[in-house]
Design brief:
By secondary structure, the chain is of the alpha+beta class. It has 3 domains: 2-198, P-loop containing nucleotide triphosphate hydrolases (Rossmann fold); 211-309, Translation factors (Elongation Factor Tu (Ef-tu), domain 3, Beta Barrel); 312-396, Translation factors (Elongation Factor Tu (Ef-tu), domain 3), CATH 2.40.30.10. 17% of the residues lie in helices and 38% in strands. It has 7 helices and 23 strands. The protein has an 8-stranded antiparallel beta sheet, with no helix packed on it. Strands 3-2-4-1-5-6-7 form a 7-stranded mixed beta sheet, with helices on both faces. Strand 22 and strand 23 (387-396) form a beta hairpin. The longest helix is centred in the middle third of the chain and has 17 residues, at 153-169. Residues 33-46 and 93-98 have low confidence and may be disordered.
């Protein structure tokens, strides 16, 4: 019963800025994921957006048109059956927000790559976002060729062929391409069908020590709340392995000056309250922590764990580095001692100084302590022409 309430898989929505990621996510989930005030003002995603969705099927008919996102089929009017519940992670597409996108990639089990049919393919962030998935070993993707309503049939076919060639070159020959128009609900049923077929539910480790990545944190109290009615801070994220229960005592690393121990007050998956959470989907953990330390995403990048799964906390660590050529001149020179780079480890971005380089080995000094485990993957960005560009990835030694 608990499993039905909780999403089974995290699916990222990635791609270049203004290609329709948030609009498409809203059509799949019924929710607009840009909720931050600056996102609404600027009309772009700034933070990771989250929304759960339930996918259904009309058992009386066959084929792609039998799939939908409602309990009553929009064409037949028949009652539908629940097929899968998923969590969507809507990532920013703007180049200055690559670190935010990379922090979300650590949570994903699959992705929708959104590519606009009215722009040349591939765009810079299309390349970088796909490379981020490759760094994390994610092969299960579905491609939405969006905004087909803005181009002619011939232009749509030309864009499709360019997109297919790009995907094949990057090792995604099996990724399906679904022509869509989010504004007109075009082929949303085909997109749902493809997500179910091509992004399977992974086999998670539930009976091991808890590891949960925090990607959002909140203060849910409104101004003027009576002190006796105040609620503790909320921690949002995904369980990477293990499980967590209401009433359980767990730790936050690195914490505030030192690790924090707290008791789990509540667990929510979407709109559902649950007693136990396992990997799959995004979870909100209710606490009695001072809401001041949780508001405005102050706890992003930290890890929730138990006694047996405490991470390493340090501002100095070694990695095995792999450079990748994404954009022209992105890796024209090798990383040197003394160079400043940005690394994303888990769901946090850190400024780092390169202390030592030898072949594919690098020793880094971070500007502030990071929390990590051995063999964790890190994404690395370099300052190229005054812009931070994704340039490679590494593995913590």
């Amino acid at each position: 019963m608990n499993k039905l309430k909780q999403a089974e898989v995290n699916i990222g929505v990635i791609g270049h800025v203004d290609h329709g990621k948030t609009t498409l996510t809203s059509k799949l989930t019924g929710r607009w994921t840009d909720r931050h005030s600056e996102e609404i003002k600027q009309g772009i995603s700034i933070k990771l957006g989250y929304a759960d969705a339930e996918f259904y099927k009309d058992p009386t008919i066959e084929g792609i048109t039998s799939y939908c996102s409602s309990k009553k089929h929009p064409l037949t009017g028949n009652k539908t059956e629940l097929v899968r519940k998923v969590s969507f992670v809507d990532t920013p597409g703007h180049e200055t927000l690559m670190a935010v996108m990379l922090s979300g990639a650590t949570l994903l089990n699959g992705a929708i790559l959104v590519v606009a049919a009215n722009e040349e393919c591939p765009q810079p962030r299309t390349i970088e976002h796909l490379m981020a998935l490759k760094m994390h070993g994610l092969k299960n993707i579905v491609v939405a060729q969006n905004k087909i309503d803005l181009v002619s049939k011939d232009k749509a076919i030309e864009n499709y062929n360019n997109l297919r060639a790009f995907l094949d070159k990057e090792g995604y020959k099996d990724a399906p391409i679904i022509p869509t128009s989010a504004h007109f609900d075009t082929n949303i049923d085909a997109l749902i069908y493809a997500l179910i077929k091509y992004i399977p539910v992974p086999k998670f480790k539930e009976d091991v020590p808890l590891r949960m990545q925090i990607v959002r944190s909140f203060d849910v109290n409104i101004p003027g709340t009576n002190i006796n009615d105040l609620k503790g801070g909320i921690l949002g994220g995904a369980i990477l392995e293990g499980n967590i229960k209401v009433g359980q005592k767990v730790f936050i690393y690195p914490g505030i000056e030192k690790p924090l121990e707290f008791e789990v007050v509540s667990l929510n998956a979407g709109d559902c309250s649950i007693d136990k959470a396992i990997p799959g989907g995004l979870i909100a953990v209710g606490t009695k922590l001072d809401p001041f330390i949780c508001y405005s995403d102050k706890m992003v990048g930290q890890i929730i764990c138990d006694e047996k799964s405490k991470p390493i906390v340090s501002n100095n660590f070694d990695i095995i580095y792999n450079a990748v050529e994404i954009l022209k001149d992105s890796n024209k020179t090798k990383i040197k001692v003394g160079e400043k780079i940005v690394i994303v480890i888990g769901s946090a971005a850190h400024l780092a100084l390169v202390k030592k380089v030898k072949n594919d080995f690098m020793e880094l000094i971070l500007s502030k302590p990071a929390v990590f485990y051995k063999l964790d993957k890190v994404a690395i960005s370099r300052n190229i022409n005054s812009r931070w560009r994704l340039s490679g990835y590494g593995e913590v030694k």
